[in-house]
Specification:
With about 100 residues, the protein is mainly alpha-helical. The protein is built from four helices and no strands. Helix 1 runs antiparallel to helix 2 and helix 2 packs antiparallel against helix 3. The mean pLDDT is about 80.
């Protein structure tokens, strides 16, 4: 996905404002997930590529909402967070390499 200069500037501006807000209120987790989601959303809107980025925004927002609701244990010793991140990351990698071949 090609980015534009305006898209990058919008992303950086929103990210820095969000980062400052998260730091000001000391709400790092899951606040950072919402900051990233809004930054990606704004960049997608500026570049006119909302449909292409909607899944990423939804996933980041979903992770943030799960974080707000609390920690969800998958078992006695395995937490859902690492497994969730691994599965989502592998899905993105599979999507990336699947399209290339």
């Amino acid at each position: 996905m090609a980015t534009t200069k305006h898209g990058n500037h919008a992303f950086t501006g929103v990210f820095l404002v969000g980062l400052g807000t998260v730091a000001l209120f000391d709400y790092w987790w899951p606040g950072i997930m919402f900051v990233i989601a809004v930054s990606v959303l704004v960049r997608a809107l500026v570049e006119g590529k909302l449909a292409e980025n909607l899944l990423s925004v939804a996933i980041l927002t979903g992770i943030g909402i799960i974080g707000v609701l609390g920690h969800l244990p998958l078992g006695e010793k395995i937490k859902l967070w690492p497994v969730l991140f691994i599965v989502i990351g592998l899905a993105y990698l599979a999507k990336t390499f699947w399209k290339r071949t």
